[in-house]
Amino acid sequence: MHCPFCRNPDSRVIDSRTSDDGLSIRRRRQCPKCGGRFSTVETASLNVIKRSGVVEPFSREKVMSGVRKACQGRPVTDADLAMLAQQVEEAIRQTGSSQIDANEIGLSILGPLRELDEVAYLRFASVYQAFESLDDFDTAIAQLRADHAHRPLPASGAGDDVQ
């Protein structure tokens, strides 16, 4: 790590701390030549292998823009999309791999998007999973209905008037 003050190619780590989200490390450094102190933030790189074989850095923005199209006209905010992109990135990082296929990113989007908005989920899944007929939609909708049937009902709270 080059010193930002004197450009000395060496520095000494004096302190290391993990960030609150656990995805990066903040290091306090000191230059042995000029004595200047500075901080660095280190994150593990996460690369995406595209279908064409091209490798590029993972981007939450790309996740958000891809999902935004499916959410068009739905009650989904930019904050919701940012949270979804963060969930997707965290799930991918938990695999422990530094490179992931673009297809795996699409699969990891499906779960959080389904929880966020089922209509947007169907739109995204229809493109991502290349639905070819109405039967593909019927199958996906039947799965959503079956999951709803097996979902426990919320506990009724005080003041709920259920008749």
Automatic annotation (TrEMBL):
Keywords: ATP-binding, DNA-binding, Metal-binding, Nucleotide-binding, Repressor, Transcription, Transcription regulation, Zinc, Zinc-finger
Note accompanying the cofactor annotation: Binds 1 zinc ion.
Annotated Pfam families: ATP-cone, Zn_ribbon_NrdR
An example molecular function term from Gene Ontology annotations: ATP binding
Listed cofactors: Zn(2+)
Zinc finger (unnamed): 3-34
GO biological process, one term: negative regulation of DNA-templated transcription
Domain annotation ATP-cone: ranges: 46-136
Free-text function comment from the UniProt entry: Negatively regulates transcription of bacterial ribonucleotide reductase nrd genes and operons by binding to NrdR-boxes.
Family: Belongs to the NrdR family.
Protein name: Transcriptional repressor NrdR
Organism: Microbacterium testaceum (strain StLB037)
Organism classification: Bacteria, Bacillati, Actinomycetota, Actinomycetes, Micrococcales
